[in-house]
Amino acid sequence: MKAVELIEVDSFSMRRTPSFRDCKVLLIAGGKPPSDAWLEATTRCFDVWVADRGVTYCRKLNVIPKAIVGDGDSSPLEDWAWAEEAGAKVYRYPKDKDYTDLQLAIMQISRSYGRSVSVFVTAGLGGRLDHSLSNIFSLRLAEKWGVDAAGFLDEEESLILLRGGEELKLHFYNKPLAISLLSLTPCSHGVSIKKVKWELDNATLRLDEPFAVSNELINDEREVDLKVDSGCVGVYICLGPK
């Protein structure tokens, strides 16, 4: 199977070097959900997994996930029963546990796909700040389990993780309101972004000095090129409400 070269959602597409892995998973978490139309369209392009409350979002749209992972404390039992009856695998954990539902889902995805999977999360941002921050850094933790946790997607905001040695080309169908770069490691070196108002060329970004925010495309430009030599940068894309 060939590596996935292009990921497309409704407002933009992206190519990464090295390429995304052979399998694509959309992991639906329990944060602020995307719109029904966006979720229904996007789930057609991915294997769908859910972490606890995500099963409720799926049932509303009759999107049957491949698997449900979690403790069931934030979704009705009948939603779990609906998915299980439709063929979803169920990985249920006790409420008192060491890992979050999202972390457990990523671990189980690793066991199911090995190193052949790139994971995107939706409904992982918004709501409680501690949950959002935990989810962001859980994608960094995913490397420990051999998972290419590629970032967060929805129709209003996305956060793509760009790690050392990777390059990313973004093509926008709808012009974003802002693009921000946030180092998710103490330092990220060799950071470049081109075709924007404030370009960077082999810059160093620091976790404790987040200055590279609210950038914008030049005039009618619709593409952005990025690279990182070492560390990990979160490429935040603010698309705004539809």
From TrEMBL:
NCBIfam families: thi_PPkinase. GO terms for biological process: thiamine diphosphate biosynthetic process; thiamine metabolic process. SUPFAM superfamilies: Thiamin pyrophosphokinase, catalytic domain (SSF63999). It is an enzyme of class 2 (transferase). This is Thiamine diphosphokinase. The keyword Metal-binding does not apply. GO terms for molecular function: ATP binding; kinase activity; thiamine binding; thiamine diphosphokinase activity. Keywords: ATP-binding, Kinase, Nucleotide-binding, Transferase. It comes from Acetomicrobium hydrogeniformans ATCC BAA-1850. Residues 165-233 form the Thiamin pyrophosphokinase thiamin-binding domain. InterPro entries: Thi_PPkinase (IPR006282), Thiamin_PyroPKinase_B1-bd (IPR007373), TPK (IPR053149), TPK_catalytic (IPR007371), TPK_catalytic_sf (IPR036759). Gene3D superfamilies: Thiamin pyrophosphokinase, catalytic domain. CDD domains: TPK (cd07995). It holds the Pfam family TPK_B1_binding. Its EC number is 2.7.6.2.
